[in-house]
Amino acid sequence: MYCDRCGEPGTHPACVSARELEPPRYCPDCRRRMKVQVVPTGWTATCVEHGERRG
Amino acid sequence: MPEILDRARARVLDDGAGLAEADILEVLRLPDEDLPELLQLAHDVRMKWCGPEVEVEGIVSLKTGGCPEDCHFCSQSGLFASPVRAVWLDIPSLVEAAKQTAATGASEFCIVAAVRGPDQRLMDQMRAGVKAIKEAVDIQVAASLGMLSQGQVDELAEMGVHRYNHNLETCRSYFPNVVTTHSWEERWDTLTMVRESGMEVCCGGILGMGETLEQRAEFAAQLAELDPHEVPLNFLSPRPGTPFGDRPVVEGRDALRAIAAFRLAMPRTILRYAGGREITLGDLGTRDGLLGGINAMIVGNYLTTLGRPATADLELLKDLKMPVKSLSATF
What we know:
Chain B: Homodimer. Chain B: Its cofactor is [2Fe-2S] cluster; [4Fe-4S] cluster. Chain B: [2Fe-2S] cluster binds at residues 110, 202, 272. The complex is a heterodimer. By secondary structure, chain A is an alpha+beta fold. Chain A has one helix at 13-18, and strands at residues 35-39, 42-47, 51-54. Chain A has one domain (13-54). The radius of gyration of chain A is 11 Å and the shape is flat. Chain B has one domain: Aldolase class I (TIM Barrel, Alpha-Beta Barrel), CATH 3.20.20.70. Chain B is built from 12 helices and 10 strands. Classes of the chains: A alpha+beta, B alpha/beta.
């Protein structure tokens, strides 16, 4: 598993904290950069290999 | 009471004139023990010259990332190693975002694109998007598409865009430290064209990019000279991969002093909380700013980062007995 904020392996307390105010940027399964769309009430993040996540 | 606050009370509260640059600087230099009195004065000014209503707005990114400009604070520049990828929002999703915004009671919905200026594809997308929103949602549409030609200004006005955002970002003397791919004067030229078109001018910037207090005062004075309808006030949220990614966050009391100083520089403007308030001020500071000169806010998420839930901000406004400005009040 990869950090969905920085793309590096593992979990990072600073990234977990920052993610409270950020959508994910990297696919946690393959670390590809995802296409992310933020809208007023949520976000979608799409990995070309692993599909869409929502928050 | 410090002498500067006596002078500000007479000039701004009583007469409705903004403070000059030297006085703004004096306000920014006030010690912490004078902060409550400063915030109270800024609040009194806001209540007298703007009233208790708060203008609520939602924003969305129509075209994210891949920008050719090098604004050092921005994760959407294609010139930095930012994790933000280029993506376009389709029209049905744009309309849905406008509906979500209107459901909060907001009167404003701003469509934003990360570009130097719009090309024909973006202008076509805007035309289709504005039309679709106006057919489906009762909300004012604003836009922020970078630098414009006169033809594009005219086209946006004709589409029914009522307000155009183009931030100067910082003062003229510090701008070359923030952006090198275009000039402060080019931004000013777009703002001049927007004003002459009859669209409302929305122009603010970001505090905490390394500018000095003197430059913060210079910026407030330059904005006052522009006299925009609205000033969105951002606090730097350092973005990974950008040149400003390691800068410290603005200290809360400095942010509150700046809010009050900008209010005293521009007593009648819509002074809006924009990005960065969550990390700079937190919940308590957000409340203090609303009681210290702020009279508008972006609710919900931003362009590439997330905000507090809109419900939390609306609840706060209710607690403060500050009514949300209705759509009919914006005409």
